[in-house]
Every structure is written in C-alpha cells, then in structure tokens.
Amino acid sequence: MSYQALYRVWRPQRFDEIAGQQAITQTLKNALIQGKTSHAYLFTGPRGTGKTSAAKIFAKAINCPNLKDGEPCNTCETCRAITKGQLNDVIEIDAASNNGVEEIRDIRDKAKYAPTVADYKVYIIDEVHMLSTGAFNALLKTLEEPPQNVIFILATTEPHKIPLTIISRTQRFDFKRISLQAIIARMTYILEQEEIRFEPESLQIVARAAEGGMRDALSILDQAISYGEDTVTVENALSVTGSLTQEKLIDYFSAILHHDTEKGLSLLQEILAEGKDAARFVEDMILFSRDLLVYQQAPAKSEILETARVDETFTAMSQEISNTALYETIKILNETQREMKLTNHADVYLEVATVKLTQMQANTASPLPTEEKAADSQKVQQLESELQALKQQLQTLSVQQSQTTAARPAKRAPKKAANGAFKPNVSAIYKVLGVATKQNLLQLRDVWPDLLDMLSVTQRAVMKASTPVAASPEGLIVSFDYDILCQKAASDENLVQAIGSYLNRLIGYAPQMITVTAEQWPMIRSDYLKHHKEEIQSRTKAESTDHPKEAQKTASSSNASQLESAEPDAGWESLNQLIPVDEAGEEQKEDPIVTEAVQLFGKEIVEVQND
Amino acid sequence: MNEKIERLQPRLLKQFQHILEQHKLAHAYLFEGARGTGKKEIALWLAASLLCVNKQDGKACRKCVNCVRVFEHQHPDVMEVAPDGLSIKVEQVRDLKAEFVKSGVESDQKIFIIEDAEKMTAGAANSLLKFLEEPDGKVTAFLLTTAKQRLLPTILSRCQLVHFSPLPKPILIQELEDKGISQNQAALLVHLTNDIEKAAALSEDETFAIQRELIWKWFKWLTKQDDEAFIFVQTDLLQYFKEREQYKLALSLLLLLYRDALKLFYGQQADELAFPRYEQELRQFIAQKSSKQLTEAIEEILLSQKKLESNVNAQGVFEQLAIRLMQKLSKPLSSLT
C-alpha cells in the first residue's frame, strides 16, 4: 500500500468529526433522527470545508440500520461498503466530467429503479456547477419529484453558477470557512493519533495558511511532516507555507512608516530571494495591517487578532502608525493582490506596491482635518504661509549678506575668471552638507517635477535645467546647468520664496534653497570632503568607541527614520552615497580615450556609451 | 541529469530523497516556479524512482530499462500532457482519465505529468478534481506551473505545493560569463530566463540583438516624449516582433528598462540592473522624474501585458502604450493643489 495523504486517511466518517460546521451537522442529524429528510440537498462552500464528506456521511446515515443519535455506525455492511465506494445504491458522480445532457438522462432513467441493497438510492453529484445548461434543465423535473427512496445531494464550490430553479428545489446548506481554532483542534487530534510530535505554534502557521480549508491544512501538514524527521517544527511550517516571521513583517512595516523606499525594496528582494511566496506575503501583510488596526482601536481584545503576537514592537508600531495610513495600506495591498492573480510578474507588482506604500503619506500628508475645523485650519494655514514668507524674506536678506562676507574666506572655492561668474555661497553650502541626509534628498527629488509644475511659467523656465543635489532639513542645494540661470535664480527673491512655500505644501517643511552651478558643484563637494574629512572621521570614531554597535547601526541605516535624520551622524559614508551621479561622471572623465575624443571633437558631439 | 537537478535545486533534491527513503510520496504534487528551475527534471526523476526495477534506497538507478525509458519519454505508464495550442482542453484530461482507468501496462504504478497546468481550461481543471482527490489505484500526479495563482483553489488544496526557487542571479550571471557571454548580455539574459541553455541560445540569436536595440530606441523616443515613438511601432517594432511570444518579449524588455530606472532612482547597486550598459542614460532620464511617474509607467506596461494575454491586437496595444507613457511623463502630477 503506498502512502496515503493525511486528508484521505482522515476523511471524517461521522458528523461529529466534521470540523467547524456544527450548525449544519446538527441540522442534518436532527432531520435523520426525526425522519424528516428532504429528497434533494445542495451543499455549497469553499474548498475543504466538508461538503463531500458530509454528503457521504449522510448517505451512510440514511442507509445505516444501526443509526444512533443521527450518526452512522460505520461497522455494518452497508456503512463499510459505502466508505469503500462499493455500494451500488450510492452513486457518486463527477459532474465536471459528466456534464452533458446525455449523462443526466442516464441518471434520470436509472433513478426509476428501486434501490437494490440499501433503503435509499443516493446520488452525490459533485462539482455540480460544471453541468451544462441543458443538463441542469434536464435534471429539474427529476429533482422536484424524484421517485420514492431516491435522494440527490449536489455539492459545489460555486453556487452562483447554479440556476435558481435548481436551488429553489433543494435544501441549501452553506458550509463556512473553518475557524482557526477548529482547524488547530482537528490537526492536534490527528497528530496525536499518528503519534507525531509537534510545536503548538507551528500549527498556528499551518492553519493560517490553509485559509479555512481543512484539506489545505492537512496537505500542508503532510508536507511539513515529510520535510523534517517526523516532527512539525515552526521552521518547517514557515518554509512549507512560505510565510514570514513577525519580525520581517515589522521590519517591512517600519520601512513603510518611515517612507524608506530603499529599505522597503531591499527587504522585498531579500524576502523573494528566500523563495517566499509573493501571494502569501501580500496576504500576510493584509492580515497584519488588520491586526494593527484592531489592536489600535481595541487593545483589550487581543484574542480577535488573527496573526500577530502582541509584544513590545507590535505595541509600539500600533501606536506610531495612524489609522488612515493603515486604511490606505490595506487598500493598496488589496489592489495588488487582485492584480497579482492574473499575471506572471508578481514581483514587479510588489515592487510597485512597495514604492506606493512607502510614498503614501508623503503625498497624503498628515491626517485630514475634520469638516468643522476646516475653516479654522484654512485661516491658520494662510497665516502660516504669510509668516513663512516673512521669515523667508528675512533669511534671504541674511543669506545675501553672508554671501558677500562669506565669499572672501572661501578662496578655495572655484572662481571662474570670467566676469560676473556665479559665486556660490560656500559657507551656507557647507552648513547644509554638514547635516545633509540621503532621505531628504530622495524626498526632494521625488517632488521636484511637481514643484516645477507649480511655479509660474517664467519661474519654471529658470528652474528647468536644475536638479537638487544635496539636502538637509534646513537647506537644499540645487545645481544649475547654466551659470546665468543660476545667478538669476539666486537673485530672484520671489522665486526663492515661492519655492520655499511650495515645498512646504509638498513635503511639510521648507528648506532654504542655495544655488550652485553644475560645474562648481563637484569641486565644492570634494573640497568639503577634504576639509572636513578628519572632523567627520574623528566624530564617527569617537561615537563608535563609545557605543560601537549603535554607531555602526546608525552609520549603515542612518537614514532609516525621519526623526533621526536631522542628526548629522550620517557622516562620511552617507555623504559619499549622496551624489552617485557625479562620481560616475568623474570616473568617466578619467578614461584617456574619452578625454582625447572630447578634445578632438568637443563635448557636444562626443557621446560616451559604456558597454 | 542528476547533476542538473543537483545544481538547480539541491535543497529540494535532498528533501525528496528523504521522502522517497521513507516511502512517503504523496499522490499529487504541484510544482510551482519560474521557467528553467528544474520542475520537469524533478518530476521525471521521481517518476523514474517509482518505476525503477533496481531501486537504491528508493531512488532511481538511471540505468535500468524503466529509468532509461522514463527519461526518454517512452515509458507507457508515464503520461505527459502539455497544452495543445494555447490551453489544455477537456478532451485531453478525459483521455488521460480514460487511460488511468485501465491498469498499468507494466506495473500497477501510473504517473501523469501535466505541464503548464495553469493553462487548463475551466472544464479541464474541474474534470480533474475528483480524479486528483481520490484516484483509483496507485497513481501519482505531478502538476507543473509557472503561475499557481491562476489555478483553481480546489486544485491547489488537493496537491502538495512545492516551490521551486530560481537560482540566485549573480550565480547565473557568473555561469553565463564562464560560457563567454559578455557581462552586459548576461545581466539582461538572467532577467529574461532562468534556463542557462536558453539564455545561451538567446545570446547567439542575432534577431534578439536587433530586438534589444529596437526597444532601447523606442524607450529613448518615449522618454523624449517624441511622437516618433508612436510611428516607430508601425515602422520598426512590428518588423521584428512578429508573433505572440515576441510581443511579450518586447514588453518584458521595456518593463525591465523602466524597472531599472526605478531601481536607480532608489540608489540600488548597478550590478542588479538588467541593462547596466545604459546606466548613464537612465540616470539622466530619472533626474527629472518622480517615483510616482516611474511606477505609473510600470503599471501601464503591466496593463498592456494583460491586454496581450487576452488577445488584443498587438499593434493597438503597443501604440496605445506609447501614447499613454508619453502622457504619463508629461502631464502635471500635482494633485495636491
């Protein structure tokens, strides 16, 4: 005898053994006890909820001579024959393969003959949704008034495909998804009977992955058993189901919370590289968001949580995240899940979803004000922006002053011989660089096109050829391709002010814009690095001797959170990451052939293509 | 053969050896994973292990008559079903079932392997259900698929699901480079296929080189928002992309370009790109773009792929995509005002 799957070995043989469908089994049992059975039943419900099993048990119970409390005895001849599928009077038909009118006519004809061995002739028509329209209609009359002692049981997962005229002629039972507890209880029972050891938590994972289907649960359990040495461990369960640990989920969530797209994407890649299932990941995330939401609203009711384990990080997360963010998260994930069902590019969809999730609040800003406060807050906003404008004027004034004074000590700054060449405000730049973070820069780059759209036409013309190259919470360095535009932008107070207030609207704070030309920028940057190298190094060194682990962490993931990002411990490393574009550009310049080519033909004609 | 499995799926190989030793092979498996991850190989190897006359710890010897015939697809008790045209039809499944009502030709053990199981029509999948749950006699089923989410949940719950993870990309790239394929080529190929042989064949295919260049040109037109991109579909693209598979390839290539742009936008390493050779140009392209524009572009392409899947005329799909992409990149985004 070859190995039989658990779900075949442990197919329920009594109504009591059908997990999680008490309402239905009790009704059927009562009907049997009182002798008030109908001649046609329709069992519907998702996969693995016990439809076919219930039908078979019913066939046994109604024919069993030793009926006790509505349960079949499973020992008499008829019961055993039915279990083996050998009784002529219990006919199981696969409607998916016998879906034509011909087959139904055959049933109709044979139903006329009285049962041979048992009391009742029971037709179990499984997957009945696959019958053709003709077949359904051919069945109608027989189903309404079948000959004596004939019972029809129809089973299907898709009741919506069944004509109403069929449904109205039957007693309909809707099988529900089986609850987590019921699945776990049944699995525990089976494992104890099979004498297999298990870790209780692993059953949680299996049951969750089964999504309310007992057969799914047992299939997965089977696999988890064969995976290890006859023990079911949490690790096996995780790798069989492709689920994620709560730690991973929390990591991913904190990336969303802190708008750290980069980390979110790299986590995603890590997860997929481990062979985790993309669909399972989305499902896990949705459930986890739901649990966060539930816990946030009703912390006392931790028993209704589906997946999450309440611990410190979980509690902290539930307090940190806003409920609007959670609604949005669930919405995005739901859409992604629907799209993913129809495609081969699940990973791309997930990437897109990750970007959307991490960008979410950056766009929706803070929770929306309620209606009644709207008028007030509008006024406040107006006042705020006026205040902002005043502040900015002050700042620009002071910047302009310092520009004239700062230009002198900044002799190392590249000075173009040409008259009227733009002189960058080096000291201000240094100040920004000192606290610059990649997080800020990414955020700014992201809203830059939006910003340009908001400007007036003339202002946009000036800003067209600009890119933000470094940013801190207070300052923003913008590089311009042309000297003249750079100068124009720096001297145009209206423009600076407009940019400040628009940025405030887009990202919630208004960094001071400092302009620099594209030619000067790499030099200023390398100058800064040269002169501040020791300072930065000594700073990071001092920190790392103080708290070696912490310093490392902050150095590598220094930009993880926006709150911390104001602190300048990003240091040397992140500064280097800041401007990847220019570095690549510098490398390119070093190639002697390229430089010669440029000399020969001029910059405009030569196009460097790496291969 | 064994080496190939060993190389592709060392973990699964060990796991199945363990299962074979314990005689705990289930009656229905669903192998799920990208192309070229060794699904068919493992299925055949397991089939051989079941039929082998000279088993070693329950594993196939690879030498006996049965083993040899299984690996050469000649064994009468191993049935292989593949899509007939675009789908696996009900008749194919019915034939299969009819075949399995009879007892085995040489032993009582029978095996069927369904390739691309997600391509079964609704009827075919449903008529497999009962049979898959409780087959008569000793029958072992292997369903192979690249997209398990497209299978019926009722099929999934009847099988043991085995995930075939692809080889890590860096390893694949290394192997391709060992075969003398340039690094740039290799980076692109591993994003298109997991199968080393197929990748090598593609790299020698001259049309593929032309196609790649064409898509790059198209991408450049698109990013410049030049209306030429629209005409380009008619004049150039359709000259070289002529059938369904190639249409899909075109979209995959374009998708990879936009994906690279997105990756660069978030500062990921250049060695993860599919088109490292265009890094410079891509960087220029993203300088003025927001991540929202990029993700929207990617979603557009994915949508077009879906249209192709449902047999929309390819030229229409491409042209619409061109227009949409150009709109996406030029339209003012600010919904905030």
Protein architecture, described:
Chain A is α/β, with parallel strands linked by helices and 611 residues long. Chain A folds into 5 domains: 169 residues, P-loop containing nucleotide triphosphate hydrolases (Rossmann fold); 62 residues, Orthogonal Bundle (Helicase, Ruva Protein, domain 3), CATH 1.10.8.60; 119 residues, Zinc Finger, Delta Prime, domain 3 (Up-down Bundle), CATH 1.20.272; 204 residues, GMP Synthetase, Chain A, domain 3; 33 residues, no CATH class. Helix content of chain A is 60%, strand content 8%. Chain A has a 5-stranded parallel beta sheet with strand order 2-3-4-1-5, covered by helices on one side. The longest helix of chain A is centred in the middle third of the chain and has 37 residues. By secondary structure, chain B is an alpha/beta fold. Chain B has 2 domains: 163 residues, 3-Layer(aba) Sandwich (Rossmann fold), CATH 3.40.50.300; 126 residues, Up-down Bundle (Zinc Finger, Delta Prime, domain 3), CATH 1.20.272. Chain B contains 16 helices and 5 strands. Chain B has a 5-stranded parallel beta sheet with strand order 2-3-4-1-5, sandwiched between helices. In chain B, strand 2, helix 5 and strand 3 form a beta-alpha-beta unit. In chain B, helix 13 runs antiparallel to helix 15. The longest helix of chain B has 22 residues. The C terminus of chain B is likely disordered. Chains A and B meet through helix 10, helix 13, helix 17, helix 20 and helix 28 of A and helix 2, helix 5, helix 6, helix 7 and strand 5 of B.
Break the fold down into its secondary structure elements and pairings:
The complex is a heterodimer of chains A (611) and B (337).
Chain A: H1 6-9, H2 22-34, E1 40-44, H3 51-63, H4 77-84, E2 90-94, H5 101-111, E3 121-126, H6 133-144, E4 150-156, H7 164-167, E5 171-174, H8 180-194, E6 197-198, H9 200-210, H10 214-227, E7 231-232, H11 234-241, H12 246-257, H13 261-273, H14 278-297, H15 312-320, H16 323-340, H17 346-364, H18 371-407, H19 426-434, H20 438-454, H21 457-463, E8 466-471, E9 475-480, H22 483-491, H23 493-507, E10 512-517, H24 520-546, H25 548-556, H26 562-565, H27 571-578, H28 580-590, H29 592-601
Chain B: H1 2-8, H2 10-21, E1 28-33, H3 39-51, H4 65-71, E2 78-81, H5 90-101, E3 110-114, H6 122-133, E4 139-145, H7 153-156, E5 160-164, H8 169-178, H9 183-192, H10 196-204, H11 206-224, H12 228-240, H13 244-265, H14 279-287, H15 291-309, H16 314-330
Parallel strand pairs in B: 1-4, 1-5, 2-3, 3-4
